[in-house]
Description:
Blueprint: E1 4-5, E2 22-26, E3 31-35, E4 41-45, H1 49-58, E5 64-68, H2 72-78, E6 83-85, E7 88-93, H3 97-117, H4 130-153, E8 159-163, H5 170-177, E9 182-187, H6 194-197, H7 202-213, E10 217-220, H8 223-235, E11 242-245, H9 252-259, H10 262-275, E12 279-286, H11 293-306, E13 314-321, H12 328-348, E14 356-357, H13 364-373, E15 376-379, H14 389-396, E16 402-406, H15 412-415, E17 420-422, H16 427-439, H17 442-456, H18 461-472
Helix pairs in contact: 3-4, 4-5, 10-13, 11-12, 11-16, 13-14, 14-17
The structure holds 6-O-phosphono-alpha-D-glucopyranose.
Amino acid sequence: MTDHRGDPAPHSTADDRGHPPVVLVSNRGPISFSLDDAGRPEPRRGAGGLVSGLGPLVVDTPHAWIAAALGEGDRVAAADGMVEAEGFRVRTLAVDRSDFAAAYDVVCNATLWFVHHGLFEAARRPRLDRRWGQAWEAYRRVNRVFADAVAEDAPEGAVVLVQDYHLCLVASTLADLRPDLRCVHFSHTPFAGPDDFRALPDAAADELLAGMADHVACGFHSRRWAERFEASCAARGVTPPATFVSPLTSDPDDLTASAALDATAEAGRRLDEIVGDRRFLVRVDRIELSKNLLRGFWAFDELLEQHPEWRGNVVFGAFVYPSREGLVEYLAYRQEVETTVAELNERWGTDDWTPILSDMGDDYPRSVAALGRYDVLLVNPVRDGLNLVAKEGALLNQRDGAVVLSTEAGVYDELAATVEGVNPFDVSATAEAIDRALRMPADERRRRAAELRRLALGRTPGDWFDEQVQAALGRPGG
Ligand code: G6P
């Protein structure tokens, strides 16, 4: 696993799918670099749906990927410009540290993420003060650094695929610097409606929407989010660009390979020992406010209270792992999650039964093993752009497991007919949905699991990639 300086000269040939050259632009890239003993950057492929889905489509092609330098290794690697690493042509950008912190923590994570997911508790947040105004300036500068890098690296006439809320203003600068490029923006989040947008300063809201409108098209995982984007533009007098809906999907081959790893088999054996012949309720999530972990635990509590027959007979594997720990909201949430788990284990646990299994380490093989073994999968976000876990579960599960799915997840649009849909705010309804899923007769489970699998296989990551490129070429859905 060594990286080497790539040829920084732009390639201009198409890939074997017939696409023009593509430059992907995202805050978190496909590769992260750590430093070896001699202080040289060593590449490692990142985890996550986007990379595992797009990896096979992008590696060993002329396509390039530009992302922020997140850790120290990434910053050192940034000095080399565009490099070949793990088959990717990738460039990390060492943005000024304080600008990056202000843009990422204050604007992206503590504001835009909250706005798009409807997470603010309005009595205190957001606090749009002078510091916030300075952070917005930093957000502009970070977007400018990305735009300059794309302008330098993109081949003539390339398609530029800009990902997510971190980078809403890149296309506006590129329109001046490189009018030959065709930029598409894709949001992996939900999108804020006109009322949500009032939680931003008017000028910032206008600038953000105008920045998105400078793309040839804007894509979303669900029609709901596209409509909210259009409504927010209309409410602010911004003419929206073309929109398109293109849900991402997990790569079944990548998942199969992960399931076949020794580490996954070993994690599975450990789970078998702990769960034994009890029923297994599972969730796999970042420790993330929008994922609604607390109501999931409260629903489990109510299940045990209302249905005593499940006491001692079901284990809740909550495989949740830390995220965005620079934010006080996330640290406080993690604390609350830990306390809740401890309280419920104290309340219901017995000498030979720990109701909730959760150690909060990021252990991918264990998550894959758990998704292979669940009887019921709980996916209950308060709002979610898509949620790939529901599809990953459908593809990995070996036990005809049932899925309890929030109606507020974008993926609900695709899977509605085969899941137990729940209003994520309704703890009692969630408890009852888990109960129904646990009791579902074997033939019904089998029928639904087969249908879920069929739906999850209905699209490929290639479809998602192609649809973005088609949208850039002005042929949405083409
Ligand atoms: C969501 C966003 C991504 C982001 C990921 C992890 O899925 O849509 O853009 O990369 O969360 O968040 P992080 O802040 O750790 O990159």
